[in-house]
Amino acid sequence: MLGSLFRQAIDAVAGDAAMADALHRQPLPAGPVAVLAIGKAADSMCRGALQVLEGRLSCGLLITKQEHLSAACREHPRLRCLESAHPIPDQRTLDAGLALRQFLGELPSGVPLLVLLSGGASSLVEELPAGFGARALAEMNRWLLSRDLPIDSINAVRRAVSCIKGGRLRRRLGERPLHVYLISDVPGDDPAVIGSGLLFPPPASVALPTSLPASVQHMLEAAPPLPEPPTGNDATMRWEVIASNRLACEAVVRAAKERGLTVHWNAELQQGSAIEAGSGIAKALQAAAPGLYVQGGETTVALPENPGRGGRAQALALRAAIDLSGLDDCVLLAAGTDGTDGPGEDAGAIIDGRTCTRGRQHGLDPAACLEAADSGRFLQASGDLIRTGPTGTNVMDLYISYKFNV
Asked: Is residue 2 part of a domain?
């Protein structure tokens, strides 16, 4: 049941349907249109736009994660498609930045640009200050992703060292009409945080993490200054968030009520430590009345020097499984809506009171796996992992739990 509800949530925020709906609601002006799509949902968003634009595409550039590209986009005669690196950037990321610069330099004058942005753009495309390359970029991102930092802090560093993020790319587009659509993978759906804000300067109040490595500090000092926060509307740019975690949660609530279930939705996002969140969810579920419980969010994990398999959703799920061990009336799904949780190919897991027993039968200790950031190995042994493949969207994580009436 929980897996089916998760699938219905994904369908409700799918990039292709969300884009087609947005363009039907507010059609673009007549004439040719150029398309720039960047992110893990770029392919899906682009396919939705092409359905509506039909033959109006003059040219396009699509940059997405490896193995997230469809034949429909790859084979389109007026669309250049690049598969780049995620979650750790590499030379492909910088090559994509060069391709982006070339694409913008060759755009026909006067043609409106349709910009489709989704999470993952921070790793997929970059242009660094002179003298810095792929190795420095990868080392910075490894440091950021191992530090138990929230996404807004991580992206604050990424845009500080960039030549295109933090609104800097907007400077290169001049007065060209821009129609920007975003799928949000960040709390608050702030366009300045999604993909590190290629077109949106950050608020002046956003602070960088303390104690940055010297190499990161050097990149920061060499980067061009950030644009000033806007003081009014940008008359040439219209933007809209077309899919979010809230919409995904609402879809779960609707689908569950249609099944006659009693539903409780906590609209406050889970943030902070995945391990603490997993324990909190488990303890609340033990004390809860029977019914379905829905929440979204995106937690963080502090990684040891040599982490094992699994990401934040799997860590949260395993911690919850430890607390729910031996109980027969609770089940929990924790999964990333983009279909990937951490560097592996698993979206997350569905655990119950017997998860730990099943994993121990394979000689594994749940607490030790959790401490080693190896929750995925334990959850594979227990048979609880979820694998969806790329979903065509990216709206943070979902936590769906059920308390049986026994």
From this structure: no
